[in-house]
Amino acid sequence: MALLNLTESEYIDRYGPTPLYTPEGGWVSGEPDNLVKTHCCFCGVQCGIQLKVKENKVIGFEPWEEFPVNKGKLCPKGVKRYMQNEHPDRIKGPLLRSDAGFREASWDEALDKTVSEIKRVQQTYGKDAVAFLGGASMTNEKAYLNGKFARVALGTKNIDYNGRLCMVSAGAANKLAFGIDRCANPWEDIPKAKVLILAGTNIAECFPILTDYIWRARDNGAKIIVIDPRITPIARTADLYLPVRPGRDSALAHGILHVMIERGWIDAKFINQHTNGFNEVRELVKKYTPNYTEKITGVPAKSIISAAELWGPAETSMLLHARGIEHHTKGVENVLSYINLVLATGRIGKPGSGYGTITGQGNGQGGREHGQRCNQLPGGRDINNTEHRKYIANFWGVKESELPGEGLTACEIINSIEAGEIKALVSISFNPLVSIPDSERTRAALEKLEHFTAIDFFLSETARHADVILAGSLQEEDEGTVTTGEGRCVRLRNSVSPAGNARLDWHIIRDLAIRLGAGEYFNHKNAEDIFLELTAASAGGPIDYSGMSYDRIEREMGIFWPCPATDHPGTLRLFEKGKFAHPDGRAKFHAFPYRPPDEDVDRDFPIFFTSGRVVSQYLSGTQTRRIGSLVEQYPEPLCELHPLLAERLGITKGDIVRVSTRRGHIKVPVQIVQSIRPDTVFIPYHWPGKKAANRITNRALDPISKIPEFKVCACKVEKVN
Amino acid sequence: MVAPVKESKPAFEDLEFFIDPSRCIGCQACVQACGECDTHRGTPMIHLDYVDRPTGVQTAPVVCMHCEDPTCAKVCPADAIKKEEHGVVLSAAHPRCVSCSNCTLACPFGVPKQQIEMQLMIKCDMCYDRTSVGKKPMCATVCPSEALYFGSREEISSKRKESPKNEFQFGAQTVRTKVNMMASAEAENIPIDVADFLPENDISAFAQKRNGAPDVANNAVWEDLERLPI
């Protein structure tokens, strides 16, 4: 039983998070031994950065202006990322649970413990009673290896990853609409667009480097339409701001398309030649008149018409979206509804015209491509497709009949643990206690586990529940590749060796596999070996990396997939000349009528609750809550609410509020701002325990993508006396 | 992986510093990166603040404007603040600075800060260690939005609609600066309120109406400075 045996403050004393302001031993200045050209460890821009290395320590950074995506630009997280290296909280060797919290152990003892527990659980309850949870901040190599490890070494179907909280609605919708899951255009197309729709994407705080691309479009005369319940920094200067009511995104897209069809701003030729399903959509949006749409969405009819007037007849255009429309029980439907706006104009597959989704995590794209998902095999293959299964089984040298089938998704795995079905968990770089909605239920689930092994470099709040901690590696301690939000596979260089007695993540996976009797499938000599296996496995699949090599990626500063041959230049832009990836070469419209969120406001819980990020923190904060100057920038979660709502609730500046939903409550200070809808409150989610926004969010899942509904639920807000 | 040593270029050549608050997203990358300089590690010498968070998300990055005739130097009783040959106004010289705070009080842009523990005024020196060898200042290198930009006047005028201004009026004092502020003539200071974007009857529960539309490029915090009566 994985109950905690120390108090919160005891864990913090021993394992942090400690906000580090000055490195242990003080600042190291002077000339570095090495300047390593690599990439940031945080969001999906994967900015190029040079790490200064001296005596096997990362001592600072120098901008890498030659890397074409960010040209030396960095956000505050990128600037301070090196502070994780030489951090006092760093786990420097394996730990085993003891009465006093954790005790140090040898690698043999720790690995043996994990494997004996896995074997015991699988013998008692069956193979699938062990689940594996991976992460989308890890390299392509590790994502590939995680999938292979779960299926070949553990033999469980239950492997999924934290991208389930991030990219899956976009990914599923992209596959349905286009037949392939990748940003359609390179970022360099953005400044060429004459109109931009930014739907539910807080670019300035979550993907800051893209800001310059947006502003360059504006410099070139582009009109910018921002759809968001909050005026985020990117919305501040928008030409048109549509303050959508949380949970109403698909209706808004239908409303805009209604006006476009009425005014004739659609490309009938493109629709006829290159798409299917438009007639159903045309029928569907008939009732979404501006006035009807206004009632649903809280966006004025005149603004809906203005959006159509800007978007409809535009010469070139890009539509970008992110979690704001994806984190819903109809996340896939929302994305498909916005894709309808793109397909109806035919403006895709051309310079300055297209579509993209903003990835949240560092390897949000690559982490979802190589078989780390419960329904996917390497090369973006489908685990339910017999041909695909045979191909990969043959490639791995296992029997197709022994390859597990589709397993549970991340939140479903937590549900299944809670229900007592899954009994053991191996996780790597995943902190579901902070990142999955309804966190008290996540805690209850963790407490039920018979065995839990966590591979991580810091002791996350989730890892406190573990029986075995296997000390893994920071990004700069390993090498490999990641695939950025635009589909560009880039090379991460090794800067330093793992701290203390910690090991490379993929060494740990290999060590476990050997003990599980599957060592022969994991005899890679280095990361490049894994990459070569990954690219070979992807050959002929929907996501083809087979023409890539470390040398090429480095020389060309990244390669866009598909890249099916060594002399293939990679694919900068998808869907050129209207060719889509469905078997018939056509894109598909989808006609999903608007439906309300899983939990809508009512008399008892009359205010919308939504959550998101701040620029100085990253995801569950496991890394960024340990960097002092980032902590200082936004030290604790605040509840943003509009002055009109504050006045009605008798709340003034400096007050603390209790925000409650049907799942629990949190108490946080208020920030009274005009930059949010008066019917909505917002709290960022990077903090654990009593400050966790995910204590109150709703774990209802999208039926297709299984993403939880982070972005809307019903709450009440009360002043705490 | 040692980067090839670049040939060091002469300081500045025709390169200048441009600030455009309308592009600023408030991310603080500039401030965090400033604190990475070896000469003042952990202590940023520039600031970035919300103009007025309750009414909007406009932020203003503040680097030293490097005045032609620096007020900070004029009011310094110890003659500790010097301008070097390229027009960069340097931090107070440690042996001379008496930590009197005259400069921090007198600067019309609110730039210098007194470092109490160091008993010294330190401020942005336009990354003299970088710019003097032909590199860009750190803040303008990392800025994700190019709100802080270092380049030639030709480059910026070919890219931007706003035009650089480097003359400011503070009461009777006209201040000319080395650093330029990008400004568009038509921008006005209008607070931004989501309520302005809602249907009129949508928030009937809160019956309130406000005039004015949300703006757009809101660099008025600087325009206001220019509009002050002489």
**Beta content of chain A:** 15-25%
| Helical content band of chain B | 10-25%
Q: How much helicity do the residues of chain A have?
A: 25-40%
Helix and strand content put the structural class of chain A at: alpha/beta
Average pLDDT across residues of chain A? 97
The separation of the N and C termini of chain B measures 57 Å
Proportion of beta-strand residues of chain B: 15-25%
Question: What is the alpha-carbon Rg of chain B in Å?
Answer: 20 Å
Summarize this entry quickly.
The complex is a heterodimer of chains A (721) and B (230). In chain A, 30% of the residues lie in helices and 19% in strands.
Pick out its properties.
heterodimer, A: 721 residues, alpha/beta, Phosphorylase Kinase, domain 1, Rossmann fold, Dimethylsulfoxide Reductase, domain 2, 4 domains, seven-stranded mixed β-sheet, six-stranded mixed β-sheet, 23 helices, globular, B: 230 residues, alpha+beta, Alpha-Beta Plaits, four-stranded mixed β-sheet, two-stranded antiparallel ribbon, 7 helices, disordered C terminus
Describe the structure.
- The complex is a heterodimer of chains A (721) and B (230).
- Chain A folds into four domains: 8-84, Phosphorylase Kinase, domain 1 (2-Layer Sandwich); 95-164 and 370-550, 3-Layer(aba) Sandwich (Rossmann fold), CATH 3.40.50.740; 184-357, Dimethylsulfoxide Reductase, domain 2, CATH 3.40.228; 607-719, Barwin-like endoglucanases (Beta Barrel), CATH 2.40.40.20.
- Chain A is built from 23 helices and 30 strands.
- In chain A, the strands form eight sheets. Chain A has a seven-stranded mixed beta sheet with strand order 5-4-18-17-16-6-7, sandwiched between helices. In chain A, strands 24-26-25-30-23-27 form a six-stranded mixed beta sheet. Chain A has a five-stranded parallel beta sheet with strand order 10-9-8-12-13.
- Chain A is globular.
- Chain A starts with 7 loop residues before the first helix and ends with a strand.
- The mean pLDDT of chain A is 97.
- Chain B is an alpha+beta fold and 230 residues long.
- Chain B has a domain at 15-63 and 124-227: 2-Layer Sandwich (Alpha-Beta Plaits), CATH 3.30.70.
- Helix content of chain B is 17%, strand content 19%.
- In chain B, the strands form three sheets. Chain B has a four-stranded mixed beta sheet, with helices on both faces.
- In chain B, strand 7 (163-170) and strand 8 (173-183) form a beta hairpin.
- Chain B starts with 14 loop residues before the first strand and ends with a helix.
- The model of chain B is unreliable at 1-6 and 203-230 (pLDDT under 50).
- The chains are: A alpha/beta (721), B alpha+beta (230).
- At the A-B interface, strand 1, strand 3, helix 2, helix 7 and helix 22 of A face helix 1 and helix 5 of B.
